[in-house]
């Protein structure tokens, strides 16, 4: 204890942290050799630690931050709301921020999503959508529908229901005995293209696979759940919008729901406000979180149709009410922040600026396509990824035990960059306030880190 008191800056905060705090998605033993980085403030795209060092937040702090850290406009809205109403039970009570946010979400999402159910975070939004889909069919007299179709390589969260429709072994394997078993359909991931196939061809082929699943089992299926266009935690796998259009058609044909998990890809990440727009489709359920509050507070929302809502609307004695609640449902502070986030989209040319920044990022990453240890450089809007492999021709991966991506992360910290690869996939998902020169620095540092990682 006395030795700890003599420490200062990063070292002091890290020592205090490691005495008590258990961090997510972390083998805590790593921090015997890997530095814990205490952040004391943020400004724009930058984070600052207790020693005065700074880091470009190249991953938007787990994909949540849109308009920079400590955004003055969002902070002012939060402070104003905190002086008025911080929270109230959302059963039997309501308030202006939740009403306004619901109205605004209905306005900006695909037409027909007229009902808004609030949750706390992305995983809870998925839980809501799964339960609501199942309960809808139950209320309609189809209690035999109890299963869900997910894509191979998908990730939808880490609560048990959300994990049940995920297919990333790192997260799922340990808890498999506790989980529902999804029906897996092959992902339309362009990485799996056969020789001569275009991304649209892959989408068409995989729609055929999904059709076969539905022909066999539609009678027991509640919904198909997908991450539109980008399977993020599965390695930033990307696919063609045609798959979403075909999925909508198949769900209508076989009478199953379409759940769009736009938690990571919504709010401008893919080049449009929502990824589903690029296919011109409306899902039956759209799950939103992360960027909904621009990374300021935890909040999620599930949007659905009047038809779904009406299946639950009945006399109390019918037992058809939707039974799902969280203490902080519809929190006024979070709703007010979300409203300010959407106001920034209205007031500023966010999507247009993102397209310019995405084009610059693409041009800077293009030379990596020729790198002997890069099998793929892929991008959808403000999400870009570089796949590192041991052998380019065969796409043989580096063994996971070698942790090549960790070497990129550690190099980034020495060069003012927060890059946190997914295994051997180095990805970029910066806040929308990032500048072209900051993108240049991120890419330069990533290239340096890749050279060290593959050496």
TrEMBL record:
Q: Extract the Pfam families matched here.
A: Aminotran_3 (PF00202)
Q: In which pathway does it act?
A: Cofactor biosynthesis; biotin biosynthesis; 7,8-diaminononanoate from 8-amino-7-oxononanoate (SAM route): step 1/1
GO BP annotations, alphabetical order: biotin biosynthetic process
Molecular function terms from GO? adenosylmethionine-8-amino-7-oxononanoate transaminase activity; pyridoxal phosphate binding
Which cofactors? pyridoxal 5'-phosphate
Q: Which EC numbers characterise this protein's activity in its record?
A: 2.6.1.62
The EC class name is: transferase
**Site positions for Participates in the substrate recognition with KAPA and in a stacking interaction with the adenine ring of SAM:** 25
Matching InterPro entries:
Aminotrans_3, Aminotrans_3_PPA_site, BioA, PyrdxlP-dep_Trfase, PyrdxlP-dep_Trfase_major, PyrdxlP-dep_Trfase_small
Catalytic reactions of this protein: (8S)-8-amino-7-oxononanoate + S-adenosyl-L-methionine = S-adenosyl-4-methylsulfanyl-2-oxobutanoate + (7R,8S)-7,8-diammoniononanoate
List ligand-binding residues for substrate.
62, 155, 290, 325, 420
Q: Which CDD domains match?
A: OAT_like
Q: Where does pyridoxal 5'-phosphate bind?
A: 122-123, 261, 326-327
Q: Which residues carry this modification: N6-(pyridoxal phosphate)lysine?
A: 290
Chief location of this protein?
Answer: cytoplasm
Q: How does it assemble?
A: Homodimer.
Q: Which PANTHER family match?
A: ADENOSYLMETHIONINE-8-AMINO-7-OXONONANOATE AMINOTRANSFERASE
Belongs to which family?
Answer: Belongs to the class-III pyridoxal-phosphate-dependent aminotransferase family. BioA subfamily.
Q: What function is annotated for this protein? A: Catalyzes the transfer of the alpha-amino group from S-adenosyl-L-methionine (SAM) to 7-keto-8-aminopelargonic acid (KAPA) to form 7,8-diaminopelargonic acid (DAPA). It is the only aminotransferase known to utilize SAM as an amino donor.
The name this protein carries in UniProt is: Adenosylmethionine-8-amino-7-oxononanoate aminotransferase
């Amino acid at each position: 204890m006395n030795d700890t008191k003599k420490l200062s800056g990063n070292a002091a905060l890290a020592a205090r942290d490691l005495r008590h705090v258990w961090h997510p998605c972390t083998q805590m033993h790593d921090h015997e050799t890997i530095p814990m980085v205490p952040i004391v403030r943020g400004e724009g795209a930058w984070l600052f630690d207790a020693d005065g060092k700074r880091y470009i937040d190249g991953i938007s702090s787990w994909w949540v931050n849109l308009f920079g850290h400590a955004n003055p406009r969002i902070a002012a809205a939060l402070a104003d709301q905190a002086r008025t109403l911080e929270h109230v039970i959302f059963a039997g009570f309501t308030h202006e921020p939740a009403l306004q946010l619901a109205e605004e979400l209905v306005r900006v999402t695909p037409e027909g999503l007229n009902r808004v159910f609030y949750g706390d975070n992305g995983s809870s939004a998925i839980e809501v959508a799964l339960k609501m889909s199942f309960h809808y069919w139950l209320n309609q007299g189809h209690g035999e529908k109890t299963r869900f179709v997910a894509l191979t390589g998908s990730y939808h969260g880490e609560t048990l229901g959300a994990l049940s429709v995920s297919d990333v072994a790192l997260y799922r394997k340990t808890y498999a005995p506790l989980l529902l078993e999804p029906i897996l359909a092959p992902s339309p991931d362009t990485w799996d293209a056969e020789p001569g196939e275009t991304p649209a061809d892959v989408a068409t082929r995989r729609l055929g696979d999904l059709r076969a699943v539905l022909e066999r089992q539609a009678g027991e299926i509640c919904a198909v759940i997908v991450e539109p266009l980008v399977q993020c935690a599965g390695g930033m796998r990307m696919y063609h919008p045609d798959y979403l259009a075909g999925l909508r058609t198949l769900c209508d044909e076989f009478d199953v729901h379409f759940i769009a998990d736009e938690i990571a890809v919504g709010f401008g990440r893919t080049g449009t406000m929502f990824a589903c727009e690029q296919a011109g489709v409306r899902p039956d359920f759209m799950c939103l979180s992360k960027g909904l509050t621009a990374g300021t507070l935890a909040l999620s929302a599930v949007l659905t149709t009047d038809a779904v809502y009406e299946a639950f609307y009945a006399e109390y004695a019918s037992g058809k009410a939707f039974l799902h609640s969280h203490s902080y449902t519809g929190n006024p502070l979070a709703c007010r922040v979300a409203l300010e986030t959407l106001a920034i989209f209205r007031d500023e040319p966010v999507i247009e600026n993102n397209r310019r920044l995405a084009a610059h990022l693409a041009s800077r990453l293009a030379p990596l396509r020729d790198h002997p240890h890069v099998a793929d450089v892929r991008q959808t809007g403000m999400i870009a990824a570089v796949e590192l492999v041991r052998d380019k021709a065969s796409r043989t991966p580096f063994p996971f035990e070698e942790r090549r991506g960790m070497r990129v992360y550690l190099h980034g910290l020495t060069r003012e960059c927060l890059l946190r690869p997914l295994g051997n996939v180095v990805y970029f998902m910066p806040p929308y306030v990032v500048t072209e020169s900051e993108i240049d620095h991120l890419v330069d540092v990533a290239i340096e880190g890749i050279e060290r990682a593959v050496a």
